[in-house]
Amino acid sequence: MTHTDTIVAAATPPGRGGVGIVRLSGPKAPELAAVMLGELPRARYATFAPFLDARQEPIDAGLALFFPAPHSYTGEHVLELHGHGGPLVMEALVSRAVELGARRAQPGEFTQRAFLNDKLDLVQAEAIADLIDAGSQEAARAAMRSLRGEFSAMVRGLTEAVIELRTYVEAAIDFPEEEIDFLADRELAERFQAVRDHFDGVADSARQGRLLREGMTVVIAGRPNAGKSSLLNRLAGYDAAIVTPIAGTTRDVVRERISIDGMPLHVLDTAGLRAGGDLVEEEGMRRAQAEMLRADRVLFVIDAAQDPAGSAFREEHARLPAEVPVTLVFNKCDLAVGLPVADTVTGPPRITMSAATCQGLAGLRAHLKLCMGYQTVEGGAISARRRHLDALARARQHTEHAARQLTEARGGELVAEELRAAQQALNEITGEFTSDDLLGRIFAGFCIGK
Ligand SMILES: Nc1nc2c(ncn2[C@@H]2O[C@H](COP(=O)(O)OP(=O)(O)O)[C@@H](O)[C@H]2O)c(=O)[nH]1
Ligand SMILES: [Mg+2]
To answer: C or N terminus of the chain, fewer CB within 10 Å?
Structure first.
């Protein structure tokens, strides 16, 4: 895949810095280098040169690096100009390149070209964005593993297992007189089971990888004064939200991004749920409801001293989104000593704690990790996205359909067809099979200049 146009962008973030880098990629890069630098620098050597404007005046002077195709990040001719990191210098260099026939790059366009030129697969391209966006050390390390190809290798291994199964079935179709016996073979059932187990292993890693990247969102809800904002502050480790003994203090949604052992946690504190608030509080409650719909979990905080039976939850239950899981947090246990906190075996899980003394806080953190299935992975996690999980789930479903065709209909053709579909879904992950639409969506999430 060759592009006819040459793209340019600042590769370093906007703002001031010691060094700023402008990058060009495409067929015109050598020609532009010759004009802007006076001559084409030696390939892959750092060459000190003036960066010239149209009147041959230096815009800046710095290091020029030329990477001839195909041995570059994008696989095309690439020129890097390392100048002084000021926004005006960077813009002047980009404008000069545009004057000379380059085009300003779209977000992620350099990496998209690298993908289209087979420099990396789609999972690796996504890992680059994940590395740049990583919110914790663990997430950065996981992105690096995906970038090195560990996740791609897992997906390819799984794809090969599916192909092997498919070949086995297709061999049977070629010999129709033996097909029926063959499809009833125990060996085939065992092979199906092995592929299923393989799916489970890869999906497990991918789930952890997605958690590391995206984390979970929890909404703190409950009656006014139950200690919701105090809980947010304890989880955040500083006073993010205003806490007072006055009911109705929190009116807007307060958001904090924290991490539990590397798992990003988005915590949202909301206005207390009660009847008879003023207009602002009403709006706050409406927003709280909207946030709960999008959450992975609701922490319903109860004042254990005032309401040891948790009747607030029973009263509000119907107004909480039915599909979002809830944890009941019995707060203020420091005041509730001796009070029996009503215990039920059924219903949502319960945590007893005190935002004042921090008693039970570690238990709540462990509980949040547990209910998202987050674990610190031995040997290291990889980074993954929802897109990967969806494709894995689809591939798995096709494999299950194939297994059902086998046991119920004994139709070899249909088994093979489903396995083909499974293989195609897996190919979407690494990008062997993609639509322009999907590529557009993936690379639009990158920063400009990457
Ligand atoms: N003793 C005690 N007081 C608490 C605890 N949590 C919160 N409070 C107090 O309860 C009042 C209401 O807390 P706040 O976090 O604003 O509740 P919210 O309305 O649910 O956000 C404040 O005076 C807090 O200091 C707790 O665990 N123990
Ligand atoms: Mg509050």
So the answer is: N
